[in-house]
Amino acid sequence: MASVYKTLSGAEKDEKEMGEKRNKQRVLILSSRGVTFRHRHLLQDLYSLMPHSRKEAKLDTKTKLYQLNELAELYNCNNILFFEARKGKDLYCWMSKPPNGPTVKMHLQNLHTMEELNFIGNCLKGSRPVLSFDAAFDKQAHLRVIKELFTQIFGVPKTSRKVKPFVDHVMGFTVADGKIWIRVFQINESEPGKKKPIDGEEMDVDEAPKKKKGGEFDVSLVEIGPRFVLTPIIIQESSFGGPIIYENKEFVSPNQIRSDLRKSKAGRFNRRTDAQRDTLLKHQDLGLTSHGGRKKEKDPLSDNVLFAIKHQLCLRKMILILYSMYSSTREPYATYRAIYKMYVQPMQLWCNNQQINQLAHLTLYTSWQAPSTAVVFDHARIIIHRFNIDDIIPDPQQIPLRKVIQELIRPIRRKVICSKFNGTCDTSGHNQRDSMLIVKTPENPTPDLPYARSKMLFEDLATELVVQVFLSCRSVTDVTALSSTCRRFRNIFTSSQKLLILENAAETQFGPLEDLTQLLTHNASQPAHIVRTVPFSLALLKQIVHHGRVAEKWCDIYPFKKWKHNYELRRLLTTEERYVVRRAIYRIWLYSRAFHNREHPREFRATRLVLLKRAALLHNWSTWELAEIADVHRVIREVVQSNVCPSNGTIARKFKKRHPGNEHSLLFNNIHLNYPPTAPQVFNPFTPNPLSAHFNNTPTYTSRYAASKFSLHPSHEVGAEGWGDDIPHYYVIEDYMKLDPAQILYLKEHAPLKGMVEGYVRSLCPEYDWFTNNGETWVQTLEFVLDERGEDVGDFMGAIAEGQAGVAVIEV
């Protein structure tokens, strides 16, 4: 190996004596969010092959790539190798020479990492490579630019801090089909006539030739990896900006390729459908059916063939009995029940015909309702007059079954189900117990049908049905309101089913009660991650209602803060999504109550024992549930930094928006002056008059005269409401994120001024020293748990921001 290094170095003299200028090339390697595991392995392989590189965390933005120039300057790097991932499938490679450029964007394909194909080659970590370029690089101008960038980025300088004095691998750059193929090989040296066996195989060895002069060795190449292909797209003059000096007109984006494939598949389906439609049209023009002019033979075992005669017989008997009931019967209820038992039930048992079942359901529906029966009688008479009953008896097949069913169902659907209630409630002439719900049609009942009256007897329901109605209530308020309607319902509610009914309503309205119970029963005597079970009681219900209403308010706030900027996607949450938001609020609340207190000061937040104690609580929840909690945590953070503790920039922007014509310059409180603060005034103009609660208590008055951050008053400086610029404001937000969701919601609704917020926090924390300069620990614990599970934190947070995980998931 030393001979290779000596040959490639070209000189044996010490470079210090020659006074050669030192090459201080450094490469910044990083990627965007959304990269896959194969992309991450590629970055790790390149980082191990380039000792003069520096690996950086993922870049949050994909549009403001000029920020990479600042990162390169910050880390003293003069080359940038940036990998941009799109849609989790496509990978683009950016190579730049900051700060003046140029910049090359290329599409990376056919990626194979070192471990993927189990390459048998190997090289020393920190060794220098030999860069081998195809002759095609010197024939075109854009390839010469790319060659120079490859040389600056992949060429390891001799004076690099981590470099080893060995040259034991080769990087090959080949141009074919407009693409650049990159492969890495090991330089394998062997004595003449000897060949090292590969994978334990025995190989024939030729006779050793005469030894070459100078003790030279035979050199062969063994692939190491990685292996990938680059397609040049554009070349920009500056570093991540400037005019485009080259553009590949033959490049087709992967999105366009996928779109063409989908269109081709859709085209094949459309052509097949058009061919089928054309065939049917040709058959119709020739007077043929779709079966070649022959009718399809009926299946002898089908219901229509087996029960065709029974259908007609049952229909004939049904019409005759309806006619007899209309003309002569005095007891319609008993006769109608007899019809159901004699004919409708056997019809349901014989077959599963849809039309027969409609008639059966119609008979069942009208058998306990007098006005519906009367309507059937009236329309049976219409059917008889329309179809002539004398013709039905000799030949029942002349009347289509579908028409009779339509004539029977249409009036019931129109007049009974969809009618409005009007008229008096008179039940004379028939027994009230025969009807549970008596409905009157809009038309006046005929004199010969005295039973067509209307009345609702809901209080006569059975106790079991009333209990089921109570269990169907969706809120605690609905249960208490229903129990207050009458004494019988009150007695049913206060029976042994009371706790069961209230627990079911609380679960529906404020659930999940399991997570809420963990919050309400937490104390310092037990670790927070231990699951506790307690019996349901009225005392527990009071706390459930209080905390559940706080969670419901956060459910209303979530859509406004989640889609604050892309408001065109804003919508109401579904029932399942509100359930998830409430569950996340309870879990964040439990974490804040357990670990954001004076027993957890700043000095112990990073210790291993405390960190494992916090992580034990997060271990109870899956990764998807952690994504839901992180999504709600982002919403809470947005409320704190925009409503509770706004920055100076937010105050200035909102003040300019509310008072566009005011030229008043704001004086922020981040200027340290050498004079004491002014004494507080005895009279605060922003305190509402106590008498206003007696005379002016409307929401309009309150919103007009209540305290506000942006009120123009001589004794009020709007700029003093700001909480600092970017960096101080960040640490303020970290401190105030230790408050639980109820406290943050209270500050949002009742503390519009900065002094009110500070006073409220001091009243909660008598020992104020532990609260300041001690940020929340949720994010730190979440990163620790995700790292234990092998999840990438950047991908995790990126999926939440893009709507792929969290509460409101965008379905693709």
Explain what this protein looks like in three dimensions:
By secondary structure, the protein is of the alpha+beta class. It contains 30 helices and 13 strands. Strands 1, 2, 3, 4, 5, 6, 7, 8, 9, 10 and 11 form an eleven-stranded mixed beta sheet that branches. A two-stranded antiparallel sheet has the order 12-13. Strand 6, helix 5 and strand 7 form a beta-alpha-beta unit. Helix 20 crosses helix 22 and helix 22 runs parallel beside helix 27. The longest helix is centred in the first third of the chain and has 32 residues. The protein is globular, with a radius of gyration of 41 Å.
For CATH, the homologous superfamily of the largest domain is named as Brix domain
Structural class: alpha+beta
- Count of separate structural domains: 3
Mean of all residue-level pLDDT scores: 73
Q: How would you sum up the major sheet? A: 11 strands, mixed
What best-fitting shape do the alpha-carbon axes yield? globular
Tally of contiguous helical segments: 30
The total strand number stands at 13
Q: What is Rg?
A: 41 Å
Name the poorly predicted regions. 11-17, 198-206, 309-313, 323-336, 339-402, 408-456, 670-706
β-strand percent reads: 5-15%
